[in-house]
Amino acid sequence: MFLSFGCLLFMPISTLFLEVAKDEEGRWSGFGQAISYLSNPTLLTSFQHSLNIALWTTVFALSLGFMYAFAISRTNVKGKRILLGFAMLPLFAPTMMHGIALIYLFGRQGIVTTGLFGLFPGVDIDLYGPVGIVMAEIIYTFPQVVLLMYVALRQSDQGLYDAAKTMGISSAGRLFGITVPSIRLAFVSAGMVAFTLSFTDYGAPKLVGGQYNVLATDVYKQVVGQQNFALGAVAGILLMTPALIAFVVDQAASRKPSFSLNAKAKALEIGVHRGRDLLFGSFAYGVALVVAVLFLMMIVASVTPVWPYTFGFSLENFTFNSYTGDGFTVFLNSLIAATGTAVFGTLFAFLFAYWLQNGALPAALAKIGHFMSLLPMAVPGLVIGISYVLFFSRPEWSFFGLVVPNMLHGLYGTMVIVIVSTVLHFFSVTYMTARTALKKLDAECEQVAKTLGLTRIDTFFHYILPSCAPALLEMAMYFFVNSMVTISAVIFLYTPDTKTAAVSIVSLDDAGNIEAAAAMGLLIVLVNVVVRFLYEQLLRIAAKRTKRKGEIA
């Protein structure tokens, strides 16, 4: 497993850094060439644009996400499960779909821009540029922020609030003295997630960026459009720098003492406060309505013949028969890639987490393994894609006149490398899920199994795996859904035979077939929703079976 990380993470990333020291013709030129690239005004402008987008997105996503999470965790708003479901919907769609929905609402021929085609006064928000990118990135990062804040806000001790009331502390005092400190870590993590995702995203700037270049789109143009790998490598490193800083800040914050519940903690009691419930309820349902409208526009875009010239209902866009479409082959490729990522990614992440926690490893080696497992979180997908192209595409390496064959070159251009890059991209979250589930297991049960003479393999299959089944399902679902919607690494690695549905959306939009692009995105959403539904049903079945066994015992 350590060898796998070396071959699939460290060696490709090292290749990226080495590429910086080469000129446009691939000759070693030292780091003077890299310095000249860094002084490139176009590159610096794109870097500044990316920072602006990420900062504004973080501010708005944190503000909206906190208020939404507060509404469904600390108020008596009705329909909390429905509200949480609407908040999670953007996770099931590629970021390009958020851009398409915004185009149909606020584009030059959008419903809002034209005032419902002349029935009302129109409003032009100048979508194509920073405004559109920020709006799309807020939609993209909003679910992650809500989920992190929601979990943190639900974990609270009612005893602290009762004591504060007894001491005469006001509501504002309880908010800033108890609530805010208790969610500090989640707030920092949510901010880092929003910043990193918006800084490194490619899909939204591609759709609604217009002439406002950002670093992610520049990386793609340099590597794919101009085959300038050296400049692409410099841009990739710039892309990775803020993500690494955010990762370090998040890890440093997680090491500081933070709020935790103990066995004596009382469940949170939400009091009656009509004004508060009305205010936050109106806000939450207003945001849910916005999400619903966005997905409604995705549906409208996919079934409209030619917007805005020919209206009506048509399923022609779902045939993908145009010269720019790839038929259902790309959709089947996505299903294959997502299934492979879910199976092998879950297996690898769980076994690695189990081995680090229960294996007979020196403490220093276990810490190195843990750090390696978290590191992919700080490497953007675009950087993984460029690194893989540079590392896997070459059949041999030359070091000071010594030619070394590249044993992994055979993976290049196959579905395997698409799966491997996606597993690596989303590995850290699933690893932490497995690690948390394993830590919750009772160590005494394993000691009893050893006393009874059961082998470690028997204990693993009859106790560890059944006990961690919900976590395994969560990991598999996370891998599957993200594999269906991601394009960041795959955009550099696909071939005509391994092209995925998410990448096809980009191709269709480039050719002006935005209706077919919307149809392809809608298929991705439907598959992800079905997978999520099956996941919920499996959890219910597992819970009923566990309850039945407990009653029998």
From TrEMBL:
Q: Boundaries of each ABC transmembrane type-1 domain copy?
A: 47-250, 331-535
The subcellular localization recorded is: Cell membrane; Membrane
> Where on the tree of life does the source sit, at the highest rank?
Bacteria
Biological process according to GO:
transmembrane transport
Q: Does the keyword Membrane apply?
A: yes
Keyword annotations of the record: Membrane, Transmembrane, Transmembrane helix, Transport
- Transmembrane segments in this chain: where? 53-71, 83-107, 127-153, 174-197, 229-249, 283-307, 327-356, 368-391, 411-431, 475-494, 514-535
One annotated Gene Ontology cellular component of this protein: plasma membrane
- Protein name as catalogued: Phosphonate ABC transporter permease
Which InterPro entries does UniProt cross-reference here? MetI-like, MetI-like_sf
List where this protein forms a coiled coil.
none
